[in-house]
Amino acid sequence: MKKSISLLAVIFIANILYGQTTEDSVLLRRMANEILSNGNAYENLRFLTKKVGPRLSGSPQAGSAVLATARMMREAGADTVILQECMVPHWVRGAKESAKLIFANGKEYALKVAALGNSVGTPTAGLKANVIEVRNFAELEKLGTAGNIKGNIVFYNHPMDPTFIKTFMAYGDAVPYRGRGPSMAAKYGAVGVIVRSMASNKDDHPHTGATVYNDSMPKIPAIAISTNDAEYLSNALRMRMVSQVYFKTSCKMLPDEKSYNVIGVLRGSELPDEVLTVGGHLDSWDLAEGAHDDGAGCMQSIEVIRAFKALGIRPKRTIQSVMFMNEENGGRGGEKYAEMAKKDGRKFVFAIESDAGGFVPRSIGLSLNAAQKAKLWSFERLFKPYAIEFSEGGGGADIGPLRSVGTVMSSLNPDSQRYFEVHHAETDVLESVSPRELHLGAFGMAAILYIVSENGL
Amino acid sequence: MKKSISLLAVIFIANILYGQTTEDSVLLRRMANEILSNGNAYENLRFLTKKVGPRLSGSPQAGSAVLATARMMREAGADTVILQECMVPHWVRGAKESAKLIFANGKEYALKVAALGNSVGTPTAGLKANVIEVRNFAELEKLGTAGNIKGNIVFYNHPMDPTFIKTFMAYGDAVPYRGRGPSMAAKYGAVGVIVRSMASNKDDHPHTGATVYNDSMPKIPAIAISTNDAEYLSNALRMRMVSQVYFKTSCKMLPDEKSYNVIGVLRGSELPDEVLTVGGHLDSWDLAEGAHDDGAGCMQSIEVIRAFKALGIRPKRTIQSVMFMNEENGGRGGEKYAEMAKKDGRKFVFAIESDAGGFVPRSIGLSLNAAQKAKLWSFERLFKPYAIEFSEGGGGADIGPLRSVGTVMSSLNPDSQRYFEVHHAETDVLESVSPRELHLGAFGMAAILYIVSENGL
Q1: Using 50, 70 and 90 to split pLDDT, how confident is the model at B106?
Q2: B35 to chain A: nearest residue by CA?
Q3: Are residues B264 and B375 in the same domain?
Q4: Is residue A165 part of a domain?
Q5: Can you list the residues of chain A whose pLDDT is less than 50?
Q6: Which residue of B has its CA nearest to A389?
Q7: Which of A163, A360, A385 sits opposite B36 (nearest CB)?
Q8: Domain end call among A228, A250, A272
Q9: Which chain B residue has the Cα nearest residue A431?
Q10: Is there a smaller number of Cβ atoms within 10 Å at the N or the C end of chain A?
C-alpha cells in the first residue's frame, strides 16, 4: 500500500512537473514566435548604428546613445527607466593617424593604422625608428635582455591561432600583445609598438582595442595594423627590404566625463526584490558602428523587455535590462552597477550578458553550483527546438563585478566564427548582422530569464 | 571460465575500438588543423565568384566554371579529373526587365524585378493588367472558381514564415508559389504572375529561382519582386491606390547546350570499387556570384581532396568530388551522374552534398538503416569538438538520383538563419561568406568521408 502511494505520489508530482514544463514549453514557443515575428531589436540597432554611430565613452555620441536607448526602453514598455550616473575615461583618437614603411631604397609603403585605445600619441613630428619583429613575449625578453629592443619599435606579430574552434580562445591567446605588449616593450626601452590586429581573417582593416599601461613603465605610443599589412611588414623585414617605420598619432586621454548606465526595469509581481539582470554595453570603439560589439547585446536586452510586455507576461522576479557604459576602455559602468547592487537592499540573483556578437545563439553559459545545476539544467530540453544548448560557465566583463554580491553568472554564447572578422574594426556595421540571428539571441535571453524568474535558482 | 574469456574478449575488443577511435580523433584533429590553417576553399571561391561570376547552365560562364574547377581539382591533387558530358537547358534572361505599379491617379512606381527562371517572356510591348493578390492556393482557387482571376495578373504574397526555426521549413512552405504558382494561376486564366521573393528578411532585392510549368496549361510570364516591394504593393492594393501593374521581360528558353559535371577522383587504396561521392552544384543563378549557392559546396568538395592529399591520406575507398551541373533549373547533372553509377561496375556506397550555403556547419545529416546507424553514430562524439552533430536524414537534389542504386544519402547542414537573405539574389556574393565557416564545413565533409572510407557502412 505504501508502495502504491509512493507510486501515486511520483505520478502526481510527475504530472505537475510535466504539466509545468509543458506550459513552459508553450510559453517559450509564444516568446520565440513573438520575437521572430515582431522583434524590434534589428530596427533599434539600425537607429543606434546609423543615427548614433560610433560611441566611445565620453564622446557626444555616447551621450546620444544614452538618450536613444532610454527612449527605446520606454517604448519597449519598461515600468521605469533609470539613468545611473558614472564617471568614465575620455580617450580621443585625435587627428588622422598615419604610418609608413621606409624601404632601404628610400621608397615608402603606407600602412593603414589605428592607434590602440588608451594609447598616448607620438611626438608631434611622429616617431621613426627601426622595427624589431617578435612573435611572442619570450622572443621579446630574449632580445630585450640582449639590449636589442632599446630605442626601437617593437612589432608584435602574433596571429590568432586558426586551429582553435572557439575563436575566443584564439583571441585570449593573442590579446595580451595588445593589452600588456606596449608596457612590456617599454620595459626594454622600446619607443613605440605596432601590434598585428586580433583578427581571424586576412584583410586590410586594422582592429583597435584597449591597451593597459603598467604605470611603472614609460607610456609609449601603440598602433594596430591590419593582418595583411602585418604579413607584408613581416615579409619585408625578413627580406631586409625594410628596417624603419614611421608613424604619427595624436590620441590622448582627457579628464573623466560624466556618463550613464541606462537601466530599464520590469517590476516583479511576486518577488520584486529579487533582481535578474540582462545587459550589454552601450559604448563602442570609435572606428565603426559597433553593431556586433555591442549594439547587438544592448538591443537584445531591450527586446527582452518588449517581448515580456507584448505577451503580457509580468515576471515573478524583477528584470533589469542594463546598457552598461564604458566596457571597452574602463569598465566603469559595470563597477558602478555592482556598487549599487551592494548598497541596495534587494538581492541580485542572476545576470546574463550578451557581448560576443549578434550571431546565431549556440548556448546559454551558466556558472552554477551543483544544486542550482540540478534544478536549472532540467529545463535545457525546452531550448532544444531553438538549437540552443546550456553550457558550463557564464559571465562577462560588465556583470562580472556582481560576483561580489553572489549573483549567478550567465552569458549568451553566439556562434564565434565570424566575430573576429569585424571586432573593433570599421567592418562592425549593421550590414554584418542578420536580423534572425539577432532575434534568436534575444529569444534565448528572454527564455532563460523567464525560466529563472518563474522558478528561482 | 567462459565468463572470464568473454570479459577478456570484451576488453580486448574495447581496446581495439578505443585505440581506433583515439587514432580517428587524432586524425580528425589533424584534418581540422590543416583545413583551418591552410584551407584553399575561400581563395578558390574568390576566383569562382569574382573571375567567373554568375554561371547559369548553358552560359559561357558555366563553361568557364567547368574549366576553372577542373584546374582546381588538379591543383588539389586529384588522381584524375573527369569531365562528364551532359546536355543542359539554356534559359536566358534577355534584355533588362522592368515593372511598375500604375496608380489610380496615373502616377507610377517602379518595382525592382527578376523574371523567374525558366519563365517565358512577356509580349514585346509588355504586359499590363489588373492585379489580384492571394496569400495561398486556397484563395486562388476560390477567386478562380468565381471567375475573378481570368485576364488578370496574380500576385502571390506568401511570406516565409518567420516562426520556423529552420528556415528551410519556411522555404518549403513558400516555394510552391514560385514553382507551381504560374501554372496554377494559368489554370484560372491569369495572364501573368508576380511572386513575393522567398526571402527571410525585408529588403529591396528580388530573388529568382526556377518555376516549373505544367505542360497542360498555358505558359504565362512570371516575375519575383522584393519583400519590400511586396509589402508596398500589398498595401497599395489594400488601400485601392493601385489596380494595375505593367511588366516586361524578354527571357526565353533556348535549345539545350552541351555541358559537363566535373569529377575529381581520389582512388581508394583497398576498396577502389566502392565510391564515396561528395559534391555541390557548379551552376548558379544569373543575378549574383553564387557564393553560397553553391560555390561554397563546390569549393568545399575540392577542399576535401586537397586536405586528404596534403595530409598524405590515401582513403581505403575511392572518393569522387563532383561539381554537378544544372541543379538550379533542370537537375541534369545529378541525373547524368546517377546514370553512370547505374552502368558502372562499381558500388556507390555513400554520397554527401553541400548545397545549403557556406555557413557554420551544425550537423551532418544521415539517412541510415538501423544497422548502419548503430555503427556510424558511434563516431558522432569525434565531431563534438568541432560543434558538429549527426542528425537524422540526409540527401540533396544532385545526389538524390543515386538513391536508385542504393547509395546512402548524407548532407552537410550549415546554420540556416542567413541563407534566405541571399539565396538566388544579387546579395549572394563572396563578401557574405566567412572563410572560417566555409572551411569548417569542408572539414565536416572531409571528416565524415574519412570515417566512412576507413570503416565502411
Answers
A1: confident
A2: A163
A3: yes
A4: yes
A5: 1-2
A6: B387
A7: A163
A8: A250
A9: B432
A10: N
Read off the DSSP letter of residue A33.
H
What's the complex ipTM?
Answer: 0.94
Same domain, B229 and B297: no
Grid cell listed for B206: 528580388
- Same-domain status, B323 and B223: no
Same domain, yes or no: A78 and A156: no
**Does B251 score more than 70 pLDDT?**
yes
Task: Mark whether B327 and B409 lie in a shared domain.
Answer: yes
Please identify among residues 58-97 of chain A the ones whose CB lies closer than 8 Å to any CB of chain B.
Answer: none
- Check CB contact under 8 Å for B436 and A167: yes
- Domain count across chain A: 2
Chain A residues 192-251 with a CB less than 8 Å from chain B: 200-201
Choose, from B133, B274, B303, B327, the residue flagged as catalytic. B327
**Is residue A364 located within the same domain as residue A400?**
yes
Tell me if A200 and B436 make a contact (CB, 8 A cut-off).
yes
Subunit contact B436:A387, Cβ cutoff 8 A = no
What residues in A contact B362, CB-CB < 8 Å?
Answer: 387
Chain A residue numbers touching B417 (CB-CB < 8 A)? 360, 434, 436-437, 440
Q: Alpha-carbon distance B316 to B312, whole Å?
A: 13
Does B167 contact A436 at a Cβ distance shorter than 8 Å? yes
Of A165, A201, A437, which is closest to B417 when you measure between CB atoms?
A437
Query: Which residue matches cell numbers 541534369?
Result: B332
CB contact under 8 A, B200 and A36: no
Q: Is residue A9 part of a domain?
A: no
CATH of the domain at A127: 3.50.30.30
Give the range among A37-41, A378-382, B1-5, B416-420 with minimum mean pLDDT: B1-5
Instruction: List pLDDT tens digits, range A198-241.
Output: 999 999 999 999 999 999 999 999 999 999 999 999 999 999 98
B440 touches chain A (CB under 8 A): yes
Inform me whether the C-beta atom of residue B38 falls under 8 Å from chain A C-beta atoms.
no
Domain that holds residue A180: 94-250
Residues ≥6 apart with Cβ < 8 Å to A165: B32, B385, B386, B387, B440
Let me know if residue A6 belongs to a domain.
no
Q: How many CB pairs under 8 A join A and B?
A: 58
Q: What CATH code is carried by the domain that includes residue A447?
A: 3.40.630.10
Domain end position, chosen among A203, A218, A250: A250
B38 inside domain = yes
Query: Residue by residue, what is the 3-state secondary structure of chain B?
Result: CHHHHHHHHHHHHHHHHHHHHHHHHHHHHHHHHHHHHHCCHHHHHHHHHHHHCCCCCCCHHHHHHHHHHHHHHHHHCCCEEEEEEEEEEEEECCCCCEEEEEECCCCEEEECEEECECCCCCCCCCEEEEEEEECCHHHHHHHHHCCCCCCCEEEECCCCCCCCCCHHHHHHHHCHHHHCHHHHHHHCCCCEEEEECCCCCCCCCCCCCECCCCCCCCCCCEEEECHHHHHHHHHHHHCCCEEEEEEECCCEEEEEEEEEEEEEEECCCCEEEEEEEEEEECCCCCCCCCHHHHHHHHHHHHHHHHHHHHCCCCCCEEEEEEEECCCCCCCHHHHHHHHHHHHCCCEEEEEEECCCCCCCEEEEEECCCHHHHHHHHHHHHHHHHHCCEEEECCCCCCCHHHHHHCCEEEEEEECCCCHHHHCCCCCCCHHHCCHHHHHHHHHHHHHHHHHHHHHCC
Sheet holding A153-156, edge to edge: A108-111, A98-103, A242-248, A127-134, A153-156, A192-196, A222-225, A113-115
Tell me the whole-structure pTM to 2 decimals.
0.95
